[in-house]
Design the sequence.
């Protein structure tokens, strides 16, 4: 298909498609004349993916580039998902002092208890978790942390479901893409469901007048 | 305490404290002379809360203002949490067409099946969920949606835990603040735990070379 059709099919404006081509977020089409190229269904899918990552996932374009480079590389699906997670988490806010040490200790113990690999504070996922837990403590709301084991047990069940959804697919390319979709959209979807569930569960308890 | 001490205690720079005072994000101190005021522990806590919402929660200042106005108002905890959820979700990206209709239908059925109130597409939580599900379908990864009931069942268990943590507190003011903390930080914490769990669960399955 031509550029105009690619744009219509993917819902991405022509100027944006050209920008993505220049930035390397979209691979070039097959050249048919000095200033024309032919694009395929793979181009449509890639544009939809970029749109999903930016519009629904809220990722900045630089992170989208890093994620796509990981997808296109020859890393294993597991390594690729590692890159995706780091980009999604982003660099954590700085925390230090007693609360930060307490939070790091708590999480390290959790890791030891469950036998997962401890990546240390340089890992963005770990760093952001520590920042959130330390902030809760500083606010005097560390009760959340007392139930961390229960939250983690539920997170494990969600992750098992995620992996089941993703590995039901046959090709490795599809699995990596599905892993990306499951992570980026899956985070949004689960958070939304949790909010709906919170409203449902708390209606009785929290609806008394103050 | 004086302004300098308030700044040191909360970790928020003096210029930022003054800006928050002007913007109404922080209530004024008790005036002790024409250009001096005395601040209390409540001011420190409020500044820590603003910091948590912006730095860890990633909320823009306008949303922080709306959330604090809701907290300070005389709505029930349940209504207050409704405002918090809308601000956290933000306006959804525009989706339309077949995929959007499919996603809205799916979610509406889920609501009917579980007996929760259907707020319709104007609700930001619902709108964002529909956008994420529709995007997954457009990308050909609607398998996620086939397991929506299972995801929702787990979200219900997380929400039950959330409400338990929050309602263990005695005063209504504390409950509202804890609800805010549990939602803003709780979303970050659960997403982080899910990512760690995904890595743990998928190590075996996804670590084969492509």
Sequence:
């Amino acid at each position: 298909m031509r550029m105009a059709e690619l744009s219509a099919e993917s819902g991405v404006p022509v100027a944006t498609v050209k920008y993505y081509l220049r930035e390397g977020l979209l691979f070039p089409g097959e050249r048919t004349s000095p200033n024309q190229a032919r694009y395929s269904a793979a181009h449509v899918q890639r544009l939809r993916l970029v749109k999903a990552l930016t519009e629904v996932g809220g990722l900045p374009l630089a992170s989208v580039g890093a994620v796509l480079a990981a997808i296109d590389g020859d890393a294993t699906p597991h390594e690729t998902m590692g890159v995706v997670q780091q980009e999604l988490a982003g660099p954590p806010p700085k925390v230090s002092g007693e609360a930060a040490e307490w939070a790091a200790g708590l999480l390290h113990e959790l890791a030891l208890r469950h036998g997962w690999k401890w990546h240390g504070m340089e890992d963005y996922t770990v760093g952001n978790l520590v920042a959130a837990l330390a902030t809760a403590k500083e606010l005097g709301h560390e009760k959340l942390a007392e139930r961390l084991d229960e939250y983690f047990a539920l997170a494990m069940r969600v992750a098992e479901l995620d992996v089941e959804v993703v590995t039901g697919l046959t090709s490795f390319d599809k699995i990596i893409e599905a892993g990306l979709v499951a992570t980026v959209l899956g985070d949004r979807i689960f958070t939304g469901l949790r909010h709906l569930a919170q409203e449902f569960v708390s209606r009785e308890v929290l609806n008394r007048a103050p």
